[in-house]
Amino acid sequence: MTDIFDNLILCNKCKKEMKKIKLEKNGFFIRAVECPKCKDRILHPNDELEYNKFIKLRNKTFRVKMRIVGNSYAVSIPKEIVNFIKEQEKIMDNMVRLCFNDSRKLSLMFGEVEK
């Protein structure tokens, strides 16, 4: 199946060929095309859909239980979040990085850190 962005796309206003670009929003990369003359942009429909799913998840608060497992505590990650990450990463390692941000905030990092 071919991607719609693999074809030549002309600007509706200027009739100029639009150039491929990548936009970054909240750490999320979205493919787009932009007119070099009027700077009009068209976002890739699949990327825009995935970004909207991300925004929905980001704005949702999950209440999860903390459990004792041996000498440690465990917190379950909702399946909805893990499925989204798997979809984005395609291959997800079972190891995550845990960071202590401040006195009441922890962060989990999935995948490798980009340098």
Features:
about 120 residues, alpha+beta, N-terminal domain of TfIIb, 2 domains, 3-stranded antiparallel beta sheet, two-stranded antiparallel sheet, 7 strands, elongated
Which sequence of strands runs across the widest sheet? Answer: 1-2-3
Major sheet attributes: 3 strands, antiparallel
Average pLDDT across residues? 87
Helix content: 10-25%
Rg over CA atoms: 20 Å
Helical stretch tally: 2
- Strand share of the residues? 25-35%
How many domain units?
2
Number of strands: 7
Q: What is the general shape? A: elongated
Distance between the termini: 33 Å
Low-confidence stretches: none
Structural class call reads alpha+beta
Helix/strand order: EEEHEEHEE
Task: Tell me briefly what this model is.
The protein is α+β, with helices and mostly antiparallel strands and 115 residues long. The chain has helices spanning 45-58, 79-89, and strands at 19-25, 28-34, 41-43, 66-69, 72-75, 96-102, 105-110.
